[in-house]
Amino acid sequence: QKEVEQNSGPLSVPEGAIASLNCTYSDRVSQSFFWYRQYSGKSPELIMSIYSNGDKEDGRFTAQLNKASQYVSLLIRDSQPSDSATYLCAVKGYSSASKIIFGSGTRLSIRP
Amino acid sequence: DVKVTQSSRYLVKRTGEKVFLECVQDMDHENMFWYRQDPGLGLRLIYFSYDVKMKEKGDIPEGYSVSREKKERFSLILESASTNQTSMYLCASSTGQAVAAEAFFGQGTRLTVV
Q: Nearest Cβ partner of A102 from B43, B96, B104?
């Protein structure tokens, strides 16, 4: 079993709709969870981080964490063509010296 | 702003060569990471370092070594480059906090081994 799993997509969503991206992780003691966006040919950039159970909202983005189910999700409201990218879920363990492990990413395409 | 700088954007090396990829960060971060990214496989961790001269193997350390002699610099070494090491290599750094320590990435090095 991979440590961090995501559906590879592509996920196609009409402009203006809600895009829902999902991620599961295997290490129960993980403490920090991140969503990165990566455009083709560019480096990943952080868009959301979440550390406690529940929802965290930032503009059009909402991250959701359920530690009991070992599940993290990202919702993008009012999807725009500029949201078309690969979204990477990342998980960090409980200590300061823990590694950060990434999923393989979900490719999102927003169709006009 | 955090800046993570990788020494080269593109590199072409021959099979069997010793290759050095350099990464420097300017935010006094404790942790530094080397990942490789291949289509469909996401970012796979090669090595990471949580302090000067300290390192831990990631998921795919075979064929690689690392060096961290100074806090700001983390080098990835391919002892004898092979064609299956052709990839995009990404360096990242983060603080030493237990929580909220997101990774900041360099621009990446596209390495081609011929």
A: B43
- What is the distance between the alpha carbons of residues A33 and A30, in angstroms, rounded to a whole number? 8
Instruction: Say if CB B6 and CB B108 are below 8 A apart.
Output: yes
Sign of the Cα torsion B75, B48, B102, A78 reads positive
Beta carbons of A32 and B108 less than 8 Å apart: no
More confident residue, A30 or B36: B36
> What does the alpha-carbon distance between residue A95 and residue B96 come to, in Å, rounded to a whole number?
9
Name which of A46, A88, A92 is nearest B43 (Cβ-Cβ).
A88
The dihedral formed by the CA atoms of A92, B94, A59 and A79, expressed in degrees to the nearest 10: -70
Angle at A57 between CA A51 and CA A58, to 5 degrees: 105
CB-based contact, A50 to chain B, within 8 Å: no
Q: For residue A23, which of A33, A10, A37 has the smallest C-alpha distance?
A: A33
If pLDDT is split at 50, 70 and 90, which confidence band does A9 have? confident
For the segment B36-76, what is each residue's pLDDT rounded down to a tens digit? Answer: 999 888 899 999 999 998 999 999 999 999 999 999 999 99
